[in-house]
């Protein structure tokens, strides 16, 4: 009996010590006079939640803003900064970028080579790779790829026309993902994916696999938030099947092109050049090393997953708002037809650039529905916050809640209203430059933003010229977001009525 009593006291004492330890950790922001949301014992504010739920957490944190330029939160026991002031956001993303250039995302180059891509790398590796890849996304290179995107959009038009024979109510989320999969597959790998004809092609299958939710994926994602632990157990973010598929596709594509001396002026050609030729760092006047096969694959992979999912999601939300707001849809369709007539009925690179209202619609869609709801940075050294006595310690993660900023009434009155005129040049110029973060900002903004915009423009033009989009009985009104997807998505697809014009 005495032994049991001793054991109970030991357990109680141990729990008390652990609880006291956590309470000390959780007093970090209070002791510094920073507004914060009381963390939950023992997991803080954010740990172990499905990625989609972070939007709700960030919303709660953002509302707690005070005079401080940020709100304090906890990732497990680690203090976390959630930015609430746009001048502070500008300091992090632009002005003091050198102290915030890293994202702090776990990568495993040896066991999981496709995880070591431009989005996730930090430090000198990221800088070198960004420098090598930046020329890939110039307006001149986009012009080369433009006819390929138009070709795929025309096949999309034919495929959708055939689908209409079976009914007019569609889940556009899947159809649009098949379109962007075919575009990226062609531009990044030079391969005809044919997912518009067959939704179960390998590229569409593996594209779904990257984003589909599962318990295993949730556990992997949770562990990856603890990089030291993840490294010790050699955690693979994507797994063997995905790695083998993309490494195999890239290896075969490179061998075929080099053997037959094939050039297509696409993304893969540019990656092959970086594999075979040294490049120069113009700033330091030093040679940059060639890319390995694994590095080429990782960049092709991230171009694929980022390009097909974010662009299809943007197009999907744009069509949703155009269906809900038919007067905006008709105004945009009028612009499209007018520009077509001006350019002799051809969709050219120059014609797309003339569609100003189309750009406003896309920007307002990205404002209301940013695919990536928050940006992440990590302090490289202790950082004194401008105009305060606050110091953010080295290694602290800084979260910039793009969704919350985009829905802040201080910058966008009546933020739930879809209004493309928010992006008239004079209106946009009058706002704080950090009030729109659809592609991030600063030296680490989205490198593929030109391609993403071009792909979305071409897809929307083709659709709106040939079809009218209307609300159906299955259309989600009001919009409800999925709590488990990494990219902002509706909870149960996006059904709209499609009518041939």
UniProtKB/TrEMBL annotation:
Statement: the UniProt record of this protein carries the keyword RNA-binding: no
Transmembrane residue ranges: 6-22
Requisite cofactors: heme
Protein source organism: Hermetia illucens (Black soldier fly)
Gene3D superfamilies named among the record's database cross-references: Cytochrome P450
Keyword Flavoprotein: no
Family (UniProt): Belongs to the cytochrome P450 family.
GO cellular component: endoplasmic reticulum membrane
InterPro entries the record matches: Cyt_P450 (IPR001128), Cyt_P450_CS (IPR017972), Cyt_P450_E_grp-I (IPR002401), Cyt_P450_sf (IPR036396), Insect_CytP450_Detox (IPR050476)
Residues noted as binding heme in the record, renumbered to the chain: 446
Pfam families (alphabetical): p450
GO molecular function terms attached to this record: heme binding; iron ion binding; monooxygenase activity; oxidoreductase activity, acting on paired donors, with incorporation or reduction of molecular oxygen
Chief site of localization: endoplasmic reticulum
Cellular localisation: Endoplasmic reticulum membrane; Microsome membrane
Name of the protein in question: Cytochrome P450
Species classification: Eukaryota, Metazoa, Ecdysozoa, Arthropoda, Hexapoda
Keywords linked to the UniProt accession: Endoplasmic reticulum, Heme, Iron, Membrane, Metal-binding, Microsome, Monooxygenase, Oxidoreductase, Transmembrane, Transmembrane helix
Topology with respect to the bilayer: Peripheral membrane protein
